[in-house]
Amino acid sequence: MTLALALLLCMFLGTHGFNKQYPIEPQPNFDLEKFSGEWYRIGIADESELFAKYKKHIKLSKGLLVPDTNGNVNLTMWTMSVYSYEKTDDPGEFTYFSQRHKITKDVTIVETNYTDYSLVLKYKNMDKEYTQVALYGRSSILRPDLIEKFRSFALSLGFSEEAIIAPKDLDPCPILEPRATLWLPEEQEEAEAESRNNNID
Ligand SMILES: *[C@@H]1O[C@H](CO)[C@@H](O)[C@H](O)[C@H]1NC(C)=O
Ligand SMILES: *[C@@H]1O[C@H](CO)[C@@H](O)[C@H](O)[C@H]1NC(C)=O
């Protein structure tokens, strides 16, 4: 679908109407080995109210993705949160249990060329509270062509302009920083939910 058509669709569906017109599949022949290693999260699209409130404080963050021999992966962010994603029958699609929302979410590697970027969709049922798109880059340098690719993709799914951000500041090493500056939408909220519930897992 062209961007213009997607934008037109958004106008009909209302600015926050997610586009559920076409199913989203993982990248064909997904290669987990090539996908593993360091990634910077350089773009986020999120339509939730909480995100709107905190998006100004969100920084670029770094993560390390480590697969095991079964094809499951752990993603460790600089915040030291570890996410364990379980493989599904679809290579390039994983699931995990969100502590914040208390539901199982799917994570789909929609597009990647392994050496430069990846577009990742979380929760493809397209829900304003749960769905997120992220752009990951092998480098923290913001390349306009990659940002544009990410923006077009998010817009085509029905995200509004305001919901799409590309943070400029790199998160400093979190160990030296007070926790309040480490705004990472999902990770932060999950950590807070966990501390409220005393529920560490
Ligand atoms: C992923 O994390 C879990 C729980 O912390 C751990 O048991 C497992 O060994 C880790 N796997 C890899 C590949 O690091
Ligand atoms: C990945 O994409 C970037 C730009 O989009 C390009 O410069 C690079 O050559 C690509 N790498 C591969 C392996 O296709």
Write the layout of secondary structure elements.
Blueprint (H helix, E strand, L loop, with lengths): L2 H11 L18 H4 L1 E10 L2 H6 L6 E7 L5 E5 L4 E6 L5 E6 L4 E10 L4 E6 L9 E6 L6 H14 L6 E2 L19 H13 L4
Antiparallel strand pairs: 1-2, 1-8, 1-9, 2-3, 3-4, 4-5, 5-6, 6-7, 7-8
Helix pairs in contact: 1-4
Write up what this structure looks like.
The chain has 201 residues and is of the alpha+beta class. The chain has one domain (3-190): Beta Barrel (Lipocalin), CATH 2.40.128. Helices cover 24% and strands 29% of the residues. It has 5 helices and 9 strands. It has helices at 3-13, 32-35, 49-54, 144-157, 185-197, and strands at residues 37-46, 61-67, 73-77, 82-87, 93-98, 103-112, 117-122, 132-137, 164-165. An 8-stranded antiparallel beta barrel has the order 1-2-3-4-5-6-7-8. A hairpin with a 4-residue loop joins β3 (73-77) and β4 (82-87). The radius of gyration is 16 Å and the shape is globular. Bound molecules: 2-acetamido-2-deoxy-beta-D-glucopyranose (2 copies). Residues 1-17 form the signal peptide. Pfam families: Lipocalin.
Low-confidence parts: 6-11, 175-184, 191-201
CATH topology: Lipocalin
In CATH terms, the superfamily is Calycin beta-barrel core domain
Roughly how much helix do the residues carry, as a percent range? 10-25%
Biggest sheet features: 8 strands, antiparallel, barrel
Total beta strands: 9
Q: What compounds sit in this structure? A: 2-acetamido-2-deoxy-beta-D-glucopyranose
CATH C-level category: Mainly Beta
Number of helices: 5
- The number of domains is 1
Domain Lipocalin/cytosolic fatty-acid binding: 36-167
Organism: Anabarilius grahami
Pfam families: Lipocalin
Signal peptide: 1-17
